[in-house]
Design goal:
The protein is an alpha/beta fold and 275 residues long. The protein is built from ten helices and ten strands. It has a single domain, classed as NADP-dependent oxidoreductase domain (TIM Barrel, Alpha-Beta Barrel). Strands 3-4-5-6-7-8-9-10 form an eight-stranded parallel beta sheet.
Length: 275
Amino acid sequence: MATIFDKVVLHNGVEIPALGLGVYKVEEGSQIDETIKNALHIGYRLIDTASFYMNEEGVGRAIRASGIPREELFITTKVWNADQGYESTLKAFETSMEKLGLDYLDLYLVHWPVKGKYIETWRALEKLYREGRVRAIGVSNFKIHHLEELLLHSEEKPVVNQVELHPLLSQEDLREFCQLHGIKVEAWSPLSRGRFLDEPTLKKIADNHNKSTAQVILRWHLQNQIIAIPKSVTPSRLKENADIFDFELTQTEMEMINALNQNQRFGADPDHIDF
């Protein structure tokens, strides 16, 4: 039986948990401490932060306080847009590591494809990877054309592309492209911040399994081989989001959910973001 401790193997052999916790907008201080403490207690082992979230210190504090061996945890952070470029990325990495208080990082991501800069930024990530400071490197919010350009100008392929992804924005072409190139897809906002939890199709499927619509959506991600990092600060919700390993959606149910796609973004479009 699958569990929250299940892992996915990245193309460089590193293993990443199939389900993690995103901490965007989780406030530095007691909120981040409590949230991570609760999540780790439930069994979460992947914590996804970013310098932009302003809570890397809290993530570091919480994982030190947990007493869980470092090698059992998978910590991701990201280089912000203002820090992109070769030297500035290397500097931003040192700042993040200082805040996190870690000797090494599991995954470092380019947060957004800043035009004219992300190739240089990627070169910095390759250096960190070669030096063993980071176990794996990847990107976030990259569309197919960004990935094509990156693949042309890189020595290392990204292991992960973390993007907005949920049943209303299922990103099938992007997922297909990534699969072709051995890049795992990771979903931020996998529940689209709860915007369509009352969707009738999802409610019907949830009733079939005696589960919530959120659990059905997260299960859909898992069965599509998408790594999901839902965010919550509520202990009961953290537990609910993790309680998705004791049921399976049928092929018909998967297709019903696939059919909900409307290519609808709730976050910024990577081609039209003001950097």
